[in-house]
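Ligand-bound model needed. calcium ion.
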Amino acid sequence: AKNEGGKRVQIFEPFMHEDFLMLRQIESGLTDALENDEFTVLFQPIIDLATGRTKSCEALLRWKHPELGDVSPAMFIPVAESAGLIGDITEWVLRKACEAAAEWPEDVHISVNISPALLKQNNLPVTIIETLVNTGMVARRLELEITESVLLDKNPHTNSLLRQLQKMGLRLCLDDFGTGFSSLTYLRSWEFDTIKIDKSFIRNIGNSPTDQKIIGAVVQLAKSLDVATVAEGVETEEQLSRVREAGCSRVQGYYYARPMTAAQATERLVQEELP
Ligand code: C2E
Ligand code: CA
Ligand code: CA
Ligand code: CA
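Prediction:
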């Protein structure tokens, strides 16, 4: 967190004063949020198009601030990262996610977002092993979602940590594919189990033949490398049929299911199991 100090000075621009106060409020609120029980984890199913059944559920963090109300993770996760709080928060999310998944059918995976900041530290593997042991989960059911930006800064430490996580049997998902300077060579040099095509591509797929072609090419390449593809943010029937045509193996989005509580997810998964 300390080496982020240089960047945060920019926030002191006068016209950003209110934003700054809000960020301060978020930062100080985050410090107590775990203790005060203000977080919850929701679960969003990821559907396997071949079977129509849930392949995995993504754990998505929610925070109700006592004064600000619901704050989006897109807003508070970066603050938690720069304030050095993301480690504790992730540990909590991992535990909640594995506790929930322990109740699900054994072929359903659990996907957890791992912030790039944690891949620069040493304790993630230990935290994960402890969580798996304490919740009785096997490593092969846990999939870590890592944004592609993490692979850009060619940090040797991040590299060895990712290898270590792979050796532990965890699955790796390359998240937000297509948003950064995606390089398809990542797919070659890394044994990702899954890539998740960012929802910004899916949004336009109906009226952009180019986006559809790009997705088709990514899917074909992934297939040839035995990597599964998830289309994120599928909201409409048309988007669904386009990603199906493109050959995506899995979909996630409001069309199938919104993020739901652990109890709702368990109920849905049990229903799917019925003959
Ligand atoms: P993400 O990893 O790209 O997660 C997918 C986001 O898309 C989620 O937003 C999800 O609710 C949303 N989404 C799913 N289906 C649809 C759809 O059909 N349409 C639209 N418009 N959106 C859809 P959410 O939950 O607000 O999370 C935002 C981001 O916050 C996540 O993006 C992730 O980067 C981060 N995040 C959430 N939970 C965690 C966490 O536990 N740890 C970390 N490090 N980051 C988290
Ligand atoms: Ca994700
Ligand atoms: Ca995304
Ligand atoms: Ca993201």
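The longest helix spans residues 17-33.
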